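Chain A, query sequence.
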Amino acid sequence: MLTIENTPQNRPLDWKLQYFLIISTLFCIYAAMYIVVNSFVMGGTTYYSLFDDAMISMRYAKNLAHGHGLVWNAGGERVEGYTNLLWVLYMAILHLLPLSVSKVCLAVQISAVGILVGNLWFVGKIAATLSNDSRIAVLFSLVLTAFYLPLNTWSLLGMEVSVLTLILTASVWLVQCYLREGQPVLRKLYTLLAIGTLARLDMVVPFGVITLFLLLKDRENRHTHLRTAVPLFLVAVGSQTLFRLAYYGDILPNTYYLKMTGYPLLARLSRGLLVLIDFIGNFNALLVLFPILYVFQKRNDTGANLLLLLVACQMGYSIYVGGDAWEWLKFANRYISIAMPLLLILLSLMLAGLIEPKREEGTPQLSRRQKTCLTYSLLVASLLAVNGVTNADGLRQFFLISLPLSVPDNENMANDAAHLTQITRKEATVATVWAGAPAYYADRRMIDLLGKCDRTIAHQPAHLPFGLALYYEFFPGHTKWDYAYSIGKLQPDVVFQLWKDKEEALPILRRNYIKIQFERGEPMYLRKGSPNVLWADLATMKAYTSDF
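Chain A, predicted structure.
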């Protein structure tokens, strides 16, 4: 059993390493279970699939590894439909391994497990430093971070969130080393932050926050910070901008134009604020208040101040971009999740202070048994609270008893992709809403109806809701479509999916397409007389035509 007694500051790090090894091992077991639960069997083969946005990156990575370049469609138009360059390049390396299509995603997931373990290492070190080696603070920080479901969900489903989280916590640790011990780590710090911008461009936010923080807190060495940070920032951001301009012909990623243009700024900010309030309510407002109270009490602690500042800025950035597209999950989105370990550290410091208050003469002290019972009771309650587990359904989801929401979707997309390969030739074009899994598994030339990988759609005005809905129904990356262009003009051989306002597409589909339905999966629309549809093979499959 883990003990909870305080130890002197000069005690060896054995207990910290013990905590890290035990909790990391438990986390790896949990992560392995999560990965297994998220797998599915199709045609006698076990498939491992990722979140659909991660599968978009996988599509780019597979094309790059096979010599087609950083493109969504092999031989197609160059459009930057990703925002995670280094993660895509890493995925491309994994595609060079002798792995089947069904197993490459598993390699990504295993990588995420290792990255999250690295994150735990820095979480433990930060918590130990800020708490003066409080066992309770370190224990709480490690457990709450290791089993924080939103962070694990985004990471184990293949998003670059794991990498960004590790970069952020490692950077915070380097700041601690510099401010508290004067270690010469500035070049390492700013290089790491620069790498973060290559992993995802919006890591410029923590880069800027940490740089400004150090400029204010370390004024004597302000010129050193500027000489180190500014060139690395310009090289990292400038190099990928020049690459983007030369290779794709755009200054910014295609997803920027898709999400950040064509929708009123005030309406986007309103939606971002509303989903943040909703997240805080589901997370538990008291658990957000505790870290703020802790920093208020320790207002002269620069380390604690930095942690809260980074959390606040990530939340502010989430407001600025209007939140994420999956806020209905009711937990931290991708922008906030990367800073949540910092918030959980502050929460752990506050809880440790409640369990181990400063000893004053005449104040009754808890016995060792009482302290142990209080600690583990509070740890379990905090773990459930930060994960929003308030009922039996939440417990089943947290303990992986019920299938995560991604499993049926991933299985259906892989199954539909198998149908697409069976009924079409290699040259067929397919219009789709999900731009990840269908494109990756079907290996056909795809048309992205929502514009992530289509420059024409991304630069169009957004479809705006009516009335007050304008201020809360913003759906980042899902507000632009043009059926007259994507279906009527481009004339795909198969229309695999439709998005909103389907009635706009129906006249085109009725004139030129036949609607079919398999026993499972979504209906498909096949262009009449298309030479790229295997009509003879379709007749032998379990599919039937249906009315529009």
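Residues 104-130 form the longest helix (27 residues). The chain has a mean pLDDT of 92.
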